[in-house]
Amino acid sequence: MPPRLRSAALACAIAAIVASCATTTSPTGRKQVVGGVSQQELNQLGAQAFAEVKQQKKISTDARQTREVQCIVGAITRQLPPSWQTGWETAVFVDNEPNAFALPGGKVGVYSGIFRVANTQDELAGVIAHEIGHVISRHHEERITRQMGAQGAVELLGALLGSRYGAGAQSAAVQGGSVLAQTGFLLPGSREQESEADVVGQQLMAQAGFDPRGAVQLWTNMISATQNSGRPPQWLSTHPNPESRIRELQQRAASLVPVYDQARAAGRRPACG
Q: What residues contact 96, with CB distance under 8 A and at least 6 apart?
């Protein structure tokens, strides 16, 4: 296909997808604009991003850490709607950064450095539930949809639609950067999204039988550790100031203790540590 016609075809594809975008409501009642990509395409991007991390980082051989992460992810995802419950894949990566992430398509990655600040299963559940909260709140889809209106949308959508328009179009789209860089899957969300993931994640961990006060201690440990190192994780910088965050987590934890108690009474007593 001549370049001009190929560009026209891709432009038509962009117009069609943008037209399909819709306003929906997040788990906390916030209005979102989503629909820029299909769920299948979103899952494909999540799988590709996860594969890239596997290529870039060594996977931990620490069996205890791996089992703990798998146990926590299993307990949390069992509280999700049925369509979200199956097929979750986890990996612990050797990296001193105290970090974790979750991706569409059911992928959870934890950096070994997180075990320096998460001293209990409840604390580790705090960060894992937060990351899963991003996925079920459709934050990745929301961010991609927003990016469609920004400069470089042609390249982004070329990557997303590579399978539809052939390897040539995909190759041109990703030239000069990986899908990870283009979609920002592993980059921090907005403050709005980060705060929402805190809310959703703390609710999830309490429902799963993890003490919601563990999230308070986790972020307290995290802030203390990063202050000592003098270099906070990149994703931490997108959140409201640490003092405000701790207050919000403490207030929610108090209101979620009855949810936690009910979960324990119902037999949801995860023993992951």
A: 111, 112, 113, 116
Q: What is the pLDDT of residue 21?
A: 60
Instruction: Note the pTM of the prediction, 2 decimals.
Output: 0.78
Mean pLDDT of 151-170: 45
Higher pLDDT, 205 or 195: 205
Instruction: Kindly list the domain boundaries of the chain, sorted by start residue.
Output: 3-265
131 counts as catalytic: yes
Cα-based distances in Å from 201 to 83, 168, 176, 215, 273: 18, 40, 35, 9, 19
Say if residue 169's pLDDT is above 80: no
- Percentage of the chain modeled with pLDDT above 90: 44
Q: Residues 41, 68, 131, 194: which is the catalytic one?
A: 131
Strand pairing class (107-111; 89-93):
parallel
Tokens of 245: 């965050």
pLDDT at residue 185 in the model: 53
CA distance 98 to 62: 16
Q: What are phi and psi of 266, to 5 degrees?
A: -85, 0
Tell me the Cα Rg of the chain: 19
Q: Which range among 44-58, 68-82, 163-177 has the greatest average pLDDT?
A: 68-82
CB burial string 204-226: b at 16+ within 10 A, e below:
bbbbbbbbbbbbbbbbbbbbeeb
**How far apart (Å, rounded) are the C-alpha atoms in residues 128 and 101?**
8
- Asked if residues 183 and 147 have their Cβ atoms less than 8 Å apart, the reply is yes
Distance separating alpha carbons of residues 218 and 195, to the nearest angstrom: 15
